[in-house]
Amino acid sequence: MFDSLSGRLTGVFDRLRQRGTLGEADVTEALREVRLAMLDADVALPVVKDFTAKVRERALGAEVLSAISPGQQVAKIVNDVLVEQLGGAGAVPLNLAATAPVPVLMVGLQGSGKTTTSGKIALRLASRERKKVLLASLDTQRPAAQLQLAQLAERAKVASLPIVAGQTPTQIAERAMETGRREGYDVVILDTAGRLSIDAALMDEVRAIRDITRPAETLLVVDAMTGQDAVQTARAFNEAVGVTGIVMTRMDGDSRGGAALSMRQVTGAPIKLTGSGEKLEALEEFHPERIAGRILG
Ligand code: GDP
């Protein structure tokens, strides 16, 4: 991972004479390699430019350390800045610090893995944190959606809101919160309807649900495999409803994960969790340093 970029940078510096500090020409040449690696990993061009400018600033004039080569030193700066931009070394936990039942709103496009992720989060909260979780599907668009969530709830051994035919998404949201209060749930996970593309009706609906439930977390679920499209999705949802955290699914695929960096920049919201498979257990905390390694290739 980071070794291979380090190798490429060392190659660059082997061709240059070592001086007391990292010179402008050295850094420029090294950053050309970094730019290629990042574009390869599907990081958006403006984000790459912004990123390389930060690395340049830090690298220029940095004392050359005798223990490592200048190439390794730039590679380390690149890695450090990337980890910082991805949100620092640690994973950001879900924020459930609100009066119970704490509403968690799941948003995203259809097929992003939203329903599966709702089930995964429910399982995690119930099994690791002993929370009493209620899953509620507000998807009245797809006939099977509410049933799919009920089946996931069964697999996760958590409760799901009984299905009542004919209710609108906002009516279901109200009923979910009422049930949550009445039956003493800690967390209510609200799985909203997705669409194949972003449209005004979807955003209006999500906004209405948000206003009714006032979620502690609004988690955007995006498919890592969709690359730059995922970034557009993130921008649209963030502008329309305000995203507090991102879950990137399909990290088990072969995407390099560059969208993670762009999404973080575009929304300002941390990536909190990643999905790495179809099983309910396949949910992990987001580790910036792992993604940094993957992006650098
Ligand atoms: P939704 O339309 O956004 O609710 O998407 P679903 O939750 O129904 O997921 C769509 C498909 O993606 C299903 O077949 C899931 O099993 C699959 N899926 C969800 N998350 C992941 C993941 O992290 N990795 C993989 N490989 N598949 C996933």
TrEMBL record:
Family of the protein in this entry: Belongs to the GTP-binding SRP family. SRP54 subfamily.
Catalytic reactions on record: GTP + H2O = GDP + phosphate + H(+)
Gene Ontology molecular-function annotations: 7S RNA binding; GTP binding; GTPase activity
Native source species: Endobacter medicaginis
GO (cellular component) term, any one: signal recognition particle
Free-text domain note: Composed of three domains: the N-terminal N domain, which is responsible for interactions with the ribosome, the central G domain, which binds GTP, and the C-terminal M domain, which binds the RNA and the signal sequence of the RNC.
Residue range from the parent sequence: 1 to 297 of 477
Signal peptide span: none
Keyword Disulfide bond among UniProt keywords: no
Protein name: Signal recognition particle protein
Keyword match tRNA processing: no
Gene: ffh
Residue positions binding GTP: 108-115, 191-195, 249-252
